[in-house]
Amino acid sequence: MTIYVINPNSSQHVTDGITQAVNPMRAISHVHIEARTLAEGPPGIETQAHVDGVVGPLLAHCAALEAEASAFVVACYSDPGLAALREQSARPVLGIAEASILTAMMMGQRFGILSILSRSIPRHMRYIGAMGVMDRLAADLPLELGVLDLQDKARTFERLTSVGTRLRDTAMADVVILGCAGMTAFRTDLEEHLGIPVVEPCQAAVAMAIGRVALQKTLKDRT
Is this prediction's pTM over 0.70? Predict the structure, then answer.
């Protein structure tokens, strides 16, 4: 059985980053963890049209994996198709945005989000509002870098440190969330630079998926 982490964009370098980010968790997981790329997705999910467009292919991709799956993780910060996949699948389904917000609220009182683009923020606001946790949000600030731009590590880290410092010092966030699966490589260095917890959403969601699988095992052991 396998926890499948599905990258809904078609950029393999993002999937490779997810794989590297969750590698430390393999030693404590009783099931295999596998990151997969949705070939039908756009190179980066940056608009509502992108979010809506990947739902059908995502559902089909996961349906083909259902029999071998222990859990699914949707590895895009817009959590595309999350409700539909939960309806379709009998397995635990986690979204990295939801998981990262829940994790951040256990690590601090006010969380800040580092988004890729300004146009991402309205989607996040709708989601946070639907979760009912808007009062815990310090701010959501953009790097103004697209998904493919994140491959420039020096430029990306400069933007992360600059915007992250604003979240910490001006918005008074005491925990920061990386608002894109393409930012996986920067968590440790950014946390050291800012001196406050930084949540990497794929790690947060996979940790929850491992826990959900463990909880299901306890229920089965009682029957």
Answer: yes
Count of CA atoms in the C-beta half-sphere (13 A) of 175? 19
Q: What is the pLDDT of residues 83-105, one digit of tens each?
A: 999 999 999 999 999 999 999 99
Edge-to-edge strands, sheet with 175-178:
137-142, 111-115, 175-178, 198-199
What phi, psi does 174 have (nearest 5°)?
-110, 5
d(CA 25, CA 38) in angstroms, rounded, equals 23
Domains located in the chain, CATH noted: 2-96+203-222 (3.40.50.1860), 98-200 (3.40.50.12500)
Residue carrying structure tokens 């001196």: 195
Question: Which residues are within 8 A (CB) of 132 and not within 5 positions of it... i.e. 6 or more apart?
Answer: none
3-state SS, one letter per residue, for the chain: CEEEEEECCCCHHHHHHHHHHHHHHHHHCCCEEEEEECCCCCCCCCCHHHHHHCHHHHHHHHHHHHHHEEEEEECCCCCCCHHHHHHHCCCCEEEHHHHHHHHHHHHCCCEEEEECCHHHHHHHHHHHHHHCCHHHEEEEEECCCCCHHHHCHHHHHHHHHHHHHHHHHCCCCCEEEECCHHHHHHHHHHHHHHCCCEECHHHHHHHHHHHHHHHHHHHHHHC
